């Protein structure tokens, strides 16, 4: 995949200029703003290229499975029948082992219920999944009634953090979220978590962070763009190194034609293996 190269990449942050000065005598942030704009445009183009290639890989994979999957299945079946015919004629343990392995490759996959037997309930969900979907504790409680200490901690926390004690809407939202966690911990009888929640409430709300300066915000934006570029580069590399990506690189201009060529090769292999099977069956019939 061809990746766009920009004159100014997100990973290259400009050097700081003397405070109050810029190349054009304007605001100090102007050069940073231009660098951020250039990095954003370069990243957009790069992301378009990566996404375009991802779509091609995904579509090629689906078409490959749809059009060529039956041919691969037929080849596996022919290989199994050939191995079984050879084993039946020779009776050699090694041939019998190879025949079993070849047949195993074309055996149907077990059904989902067989794979997850005893893990699913009547609705097809595991107990853990069912609990998560119904907002119930994932782990069952250790006892019906929580301990006296857990009950004490719970009552203290509710009395202190009840949403009706809120002074404003922001405070109410904080209390609502906190009480949800308190109720969940109490439902599990989790004394340790209740103590941690008690300490958290006693510490008070987290103070708002200092608002960054315009220059700091621009540098943070450049850093985020650089990290995003690294992530996209990793995605692109994974796509290019995949089996489908490697096949696409063989015919970057006409991937649809590549599918046709592979289909022709598979058809030739199927015809060859069918002829081999007919020969073995004929020899076996003549020998008997």
TrEMBL record:
KW Coiled coil (keyword) present: yes
Residues in coiled coil: 222-283
UniProt keyword annotations, A-Z: Coiled coil
InterPro entries: J_dom_sf
Chain positions covered by the region annotation Disordered: 1-31
Compositional bias of kind Low complexity: 1-18
The organism's place on the tree of life at top rank: Bacteria
Lipoprotein keyword on record: no
Protein name per the record: J domain-containing protein
Protein source organism: Streptomyces antnestii
Lineage: Bacteria, Bacillati, Actinomycetota, Actinomycetes, Kitasatosporales
